[in-house]
Amino acid sequence: MSPLHAVAIFAAGVVAGTINTVVGSGTLFTFPVLLAFGYAPVVANVSNTVGLVPGSASGALGYRRELSGQGRRLARLAVASVTGGIIGAVLLLSLPASAFTAIVPVFIALALVLIIAQPRISALLAGRRTGGRHLAGPLASGGVLVGGIYGGYFGAAQGIMLLAILSLSIDDELQRLNALKVVLAGLVNLVSGIIFVLVADVAWAPAGLIAGGSLLGGVLGARVGRRLPPQILRAVIVVVGVAAIVHLVA
Fold first, then answer.
1. What is the C-alpha separation between 17 and 230, in angstroms, rounded?
2. Separation of alpha carbons 164 and 129, rounded Å
3. What pTM does this model have?
4. 157: alpha, beta or left, given left = phi > 0 and alpha = psi -120 to 50?
5. pLDDT tens, position by position, for the chain (250 residues)?
């Protein structure tokens, strides 16, 4: 690995860690870089997942204020995330990539529609609320499980999907839900990363560079993300999501 390649991978890790904390889709910055430098797709995906784990940890630490009081909710959803991450990692190692990546753009598009429509849908549901949506019910758990499977398999735009699911299934401020998303996505990366370390071929040099970059990016993302008003945060989500669709289709 040349010094220029190392710098590029580290820089991609910083961007990915920042974007993952604010929105999601950081994989779309690191994965193509690894492919461009000659790593096989599965090796690049596996190494990328392992490398992004520290960024999730630093991002969650930066959002600790917004996570306050969400212990019960997080505990329930963490089970769904971990289970989904395990299933997704197993699928990645046992199925051809084309079996899932062909429908990834559709998943991202659906998540964007849900994010954009969330305020109106929440208003329509307001009259039916009994307070239970402050907890993580079956809808939230089921959605987080699906998001975990997707994240364990590939991970691009996992954060967008999770935030859409949480916004529609839990009645809370967007910034608090975004903090919850950071932890849940991090759990998916952690459990799938452990599986990859045990049974898959990890390219440790780029994984380490991404880890260092994402650790820094997670701190930056938390500082930027919590200052964004909900309207701006949704706009960022849409821009990143559309870019993800264009990139995957291309």
1. 20
2. 18
3. 0.82
4. left
5. 888 999 999 999 998 888 888 877 788 788 888 988 888 888 988 999 999 999 888 888 888 888 988 888 999 999 999 999 999 999 999 988 777 667 778 877 877 787 787 677 666 655 554 454 555 678 889 999 999 999 999 877 788 888 888 888 887 888 888 889 999 999 999 999 999 999 999 999 999 999 999 999 988 888 876 676 777 767 877 787 787 777 767 6
- Compute how many other C-beta atoms are within 10 angstroms of the C-beta atom of residue 192: 32
Q: Mapping DSSP to helix (H, G, I), strand (E, B) and coil, where does residue 230 land?
A: helix
What is d(CA 16, CA 25) in angstroms, rounded to the nearest whole number? 7
Cα 105 off chain centre by: 15
DSSP class of 63: T
- Rounded-to-5 percentages of helix, strand, coil across the chain: 85, 0, 15
- C-alpha to C-alpha distance for 198 and 171, rounded to whole angstroms: 39
Token pair in block for residue 151: 């994240």
CA distance 194 to 152: 11
d(CA 121, CA 117): 6
Evaluate whether 159 touches 12 at the Cβ level (below 8 Å): no
Residue 60 half-sphere exposure toward CB, CA atoms < 13 A: 16
- What single string gives the DSSP state of each residue in 80-114? HHHHHHHHHHHHHHHS-THHHHTTHHHHHHHHHHH
Q: Are 15 and 41 in contact (CB under 8 A)?
A: no
